[in-house]
Amino acid sequence: MNGYCCIAVDVGKLDNESMEIARTIGVSALCKCKPIACLIFASCNLREPNNLLSKKNKRVAVQRVQCEATRSRRHMCLGSAGAMWALLYGLQSQEAEAKEIQVGAYLPPAPSNAGFVQFKATNKDTPALRAGNVEPYQFILPSTWKRVRVANILSGNYCQPKCAEPWVEAKFEDANQGTVQVVASPLIRLTNKPNAQIEEIGNPEKLIASLGPFVTGNSYDPDELVESNVERHDDQTYYSYTLETPYALTGTHNLAKATAKGNTVVLFVVSANDKQWPKSEKILRSIVNSFQI
Fold first, then answer.
1. How do residues 195-207 score in pLDDT, each as one tens digit?
2. Could you give phi then psi for residue 195, rounded to 5 degrees?
3. In terms of C-beta distances under 8 Å and separation of at least 24 residues, what long-range contacts does 109-118 make, across chains too?
4. Is domain 103-290 annotated with CATH 3.90.1800.10?
5. Are 206 and 285 in contact (CB under 8 A)?
């Protein structure tokens, strides 16, 4: 792909109704550069996106343009490394919750964590698990959290069983505490060695340099890495991370844990904003520490 397929819209001409229509067709990753907002599509194979928009609302002035990739993460709306994921994160944020009930209503209690429940993924949960591309994983959550629907373009449903780019397996959130995402990346994106262990891909710093944008939702700067560790559980190696990410779409505070198994690297991300973090840090650390595959 030579660039990103975009629609350029005069932000000043978009009223609330028009913006909602734009979001409905997947145009939600608005770059914050006025007066023109670059709306990046996930694929250059989209046909006549401006026609799709004009059919719904004649008032939206749209033209199709080509965005150029950039190495700068702060001087343009979205850089080349994080641009696509920013779009996908934006699409996901617009999706309604899959279950409008707390997880405590349908998940079993965590054996040794009062107030938490246990989530164990099965092949009924996601397209990748059904396709055998991801090994079952598990973690704990506070019983008050809710599961959030993952947009089809994010879920990997359209590309299984041979996805070339990372996808979101599952997402849970609590408005007062934070967000959890399980992200899966094809192993071949990181190494040419089949069934490689995470140590064979590289050290923790090398791995997060490749997967950092999928933690933050847009871009990654090595200066944002506060701490990294190597853990071993049941013959499985995990890399764990603490990141302070002031420009992240996911939140200013991110905890992550990664491991490789089979043909996939699984990245478990726990995020919070400045308001959520002081009260929920202990809970979020318990969640990320519980992740296993």
1. 999 999 999 999 9
2. 55, 35
3. 109/143, 110/140, 110/290, 113/140, 113/286, 113/290, 115/142, 115/143, 116/140, 116/141, 116/142, 116/143, 116/286, 117/141, 117/142, 117/143
4. no
5. no
